[in-house]
From TrEMBL, chain A:
Keywords: Membrane, Transmembrane, Transmembrane helix. It comes from the Bacteria. This is Uncharacterized protein. The chain crosses the membrane at residues 28-50, 79-99, 119-138, 158-180, 192-213, 225-245.
TrEMBL record, chain B:
The keyword Nucleotide-binding does not apply. This is Nitric oxide reductase NorE protein. PROSITE patterns: COX3 (PS50253). One of its GO terms (molecular function) is cytochrome-c oxidase activity. Its main location: membrane. It comes from Panacagrimonas perspica. It is a multi-pass membrane protein. It is found in: Cell membrane; Membrane. GO terms for biological process: aerobic electron transport chain. GO terms for cellular component: plasma membrane. The chain crosses the membrane at residues 21-42, 62-83, 95-112, 132-156, 176-195.
Length: 262, 203
């Protein structure tokens, strides 16, 4: 209690609804955190498998080849994109759970980084959902649209979801930076997970080259810009969910001890 | 490794935490670069003549100069870390400054090299070799800029926070990162500049 920073810690918890029981205080946190893997599984099935985006239709396919895809698989794409737009929104509650944990990583830091994470993660929903609309539009009247329009819609979807990567980089870097300020002997987010998060976010910079190529490793279907980058992103979701889940009971215990002592 | 079991806010972190953390960043980076190197070798085997012909248009003198610059700069960082371990603050700052100034030479050299390529209308789309050339050296250059920023940060940080408990962890983490930038160039140089080189006899 002699350490003024320790006093701030307790004051923080008292400021945040000391009348609430621990159960009420942490209610919904786990549910929100669990939305990460739910999003991931649903997105892979809907957007990836049904929507024919895992792997993507190659950028060097002709307009006729692409039109053939929409005209043959329109029902799968409609179902897939409808699901992607539904489950894509789960990225938001997942981001909120991380935000709540981040606010308690280091009570002596301000909340700029955690707030930025919340905004960046929340806005990640935009490219996920908006790009799905383009593919959905292509599957809506595939026989009435000409092949070049269908090609344009498919291209536009991919250009949006790939090139809006930086809105996802921001929360990834923020989680890493905030996690590294943790002064606990055993940090909520281990150092390796923080550095992985920072690295993964920055690795998306390879997407800068995506619009310049229709084949090869940098194209949307390329081994680097598709397979590596998407696996890196999916792994990030699982890793951060795991440590967010593990952090919640630890924070609940910390709060209980501090309120009990106050 | 001893850790405090107290609620720990304000407690000093073990410096090895920082080092082991940055190692994850470095390993992940090396894996991706390793994949790029493998991709280069596989694609090269399909169009050997194009790759060798293009490799011969690169100035290996500049590539070698870059290698010497980065290794020398890396050596300065080794001396800086040693100085930090021995508590010699002035020597630490001087070695970091030396590493930065020598390292800046790499930026100048790359500017000359890129300028020459652009002047000859050579870009990523010229052929597959140049796609790899610009991708590998460009990605490396971004890492170089990050490293220069880290060196500048640690120099300024040492002015006020050299006594901070995590200072040694920070400088060792920066040192490790800077060595990774060296290491990548040590691999990029033979792959791009030397592998396809056909030595011309001296006149």
């Amino acid at each position: 209690m002699n350490d003024p920073r320790m006093f701030n810690t307790e004051a923080y918890f008292r400021y945040y609804n000391p009348v609430l029981s621990n159960e009420s205080y942490f209610k919904y946190w786990r549910v929100c955190a669990a939305m990460g893997p739910v999003f991931l599984a649903a997105f892979i099935i809907c957007w990836g498998v049904l929507g024919s985006n895992i792997p993507p239709i190659p950028a060097d396919f002709t307009a006729d080849q692409l039109a053939q895809h929409f005209r043959t698989n329109y029902n799968e794409v409609r179902a897939g994109m409808s699901g992607a737009m539904l489950f894509g929104c789960l990225y938001l509650p997942w981001t909120l759970a991380i935000y709540k944990v981040m606010q308690l990583i280091n009570r002596n830091e301000n909340d700029i980084v955690s707030t930025l994470q919340m905004w960046g993660g929340g806005l990640t929903v935009v490219p996920l959902v908006t790009s799905s609309v383009f593919w959905l539009t292509g599957s809506y009247r595939p026989d009435e649209l000409d092949p070049k329009t269908l090609q344009m819609l498919y291209d536009q979807g991919w250009l949006l979801i790939d090139m809006f990567y930086f809105i996802t980089t921001i929360p990834m870097v923020c989680i890493g930076v905030a996690g590294l300020t943790d002064q606990r002997a055993k940090p909520l987010f281990p150092r390796w997970a923080c550095w992985y998060s920072i690295w993964a976010g920055l690795s998306f910079l390879f997407e800068l080259l995506m619009p310049f190529f229709k084949s090869g490793l940098f194209a949307r279907q390329g081994w680097l810009n598709f397979w590596v980058e998407f696996v890196v992103w999916f792994a990030y979701i699982l890793i951060i969910t795991f440590f967010t889940m593990k952090a919640i009971p630890r924070l609940a215990k910390e709060r209980e001890e501090m309120l009990g002592r106050a | 490794m001893e850790h405090s079991t107290a609620p720990t806010i304000g407690a000093s972190r073990d410096q090895r935490d920082l080092v082991s953390g940055i190692l994850v960043f470095i390993i992940a980076d090396l894996i991706v670069f390793g994949m790029l190197f493998t991709g280069f070798m596989v694609d090269r085997s399909k169009e050997l003549a194009v790759y060798n012909q293009s490799a011969n248009t690169l100035d290996y003198h500049l590539g070698l100069l870059n290698l010497l610059i980065l290794v020398t700069s890396g050596l300065c960082v080794v001396f800086a870390v040693t100085a930090a371990r021995e508590g010699r603050l002035t020597a630490l700052r001087n070695w970091i400054l030396a590493a930065f100034v020598i390292g800046a030479g790499f930026g100048v050299s790359k500017a000359i090299e890129y300028g020459d390529k652009f002047a000859h209308d050579i870009g990523m789309h010229t052929n597959p070799f140049y796609m790899y050339y610009f991708a590998l050296t460009g990605a490396h250059f971004l890492h170089f800029l990050g490293g220069m920023g880290a060196l500048a940060f640690i120099w300024f940080y040492s002015l006020r926070h050299a006594g901070a408990p995590d200072f040694r962890g920070k400088i060792e983490a920066v040192g490790l990162y800077w060595h990774m930038v060296d290491l990548l160039w040590i691999l990029i140089f033979p792959l791009l500049y030397v592998l396809g080189l056909q030595w011309q006899p001296c006149p």
